[in-house]
Design a protein that fits this description.
alpha/beta
Length: 242
């Protein structure tokens, strides 16, 4: 696994990277437990939404333990996947799966989503699952995604819906603020990470607002699809064709 130079590390970046590093070994289990296993379905939808193209390459940002990268490879076996994440321990945990699955076309790299170590127009599609919330400022990451996409390429952003929306009559909001930190404490012994998760979901912009941010970054044909009653949204946008 290679490591890029990461510049302009902010206090926020350090705090988020450290937090995810502490829960890396519990991350997959918690994803399955907290979503009741629906996270596997969400990743399949994401992997089916990318646009193949001439580079035969996808970029998976905030790749973490590589589950989205594996989903992309299953859906598009002829394509390479560049798996980038700011948190090195998460990638280390994910890299252990590569040998077990005899996977040789996923390439993990430690890198900052605001400063991608890739040339312009170098990938057919970019995915990011449950990671855009953690990047500040978001617009810098969105512009970098746009830069590295090949003309006509697509970005696919999978993210929790805004906690400002009342999902299931507010039951989901209660789950976020009251139950999720307690479950996180039981499984990972780090309740602060799941208090952070609940807070960032509650503060995240609406699907409409994120779509406008994507347009500001240059994307066209921006649209979104709500999954599981809006608990998760899949946002898509494309780079203008040359």
């Amino acid at each position: 696994m290679s490591t890029s130079s990461i510049t302009d590390i902010t206090e926020h970046d350090q705090a988020v990277s450290g937090m995810f590093g502490r829960i890396a070994r519990f991350y997959d289990l918690l994803n399955h437990v907290l979503s009741l296993g629906i996270d596997c379905y969400w990743r399949r939808v994401l992997a089916r939404s990318v646009l193949p193209g001439a580079t035969h390459r996808f970029l998976d940002l905030a790749a973490g333990t590589l589950d989205v990268s594996f989903a992309l490879r299953r859906q598009h076996p002829g394509y390479d996947v560049l798996a980038l994440d700011f948190c090195h321990p998460m990638l280390v945990h994910g890299t252990k799966k590569l040998a077990r699955r005899k996977e040789q076309r996923i390439f993990p790299v430690t890198a900052d989503g605001k400063h991608l170590p890739l040339p312009d127009n170098s990938t057919d599609s970019v995915t990011i699952a449950f990671g855009i919330r953690n990047i500040v400022p978001r617009i810098e990451a969105l512009k970098e995604m746009y830069r590295v996409l090949a003309p006509g390429g697509r970005v696919c952003i999978l993210e929790f819906g805004s906690g400002r929306d009342r999902i299931w009559g507010g039951l989901y909001n209660t789950y976020l603020t009251r139950l999720l930190p307690h479950i996180g404490r039981l499984v990972s012994s780090d309740p602060a990470a799941y208090t952070y998760l609940a807070r960032t979901i509650m503060e995240f912009p609406s699907a409409f607002e994120l779509a406008r941010e994507m347009e500001t970054a240059g994307f066209v044909r921006v649209h979104y699809q709500k999954l599981t009653s809006g608990i998760v949204c899949l946002h898509m946008g494309e780079k203008r064709s040359a």
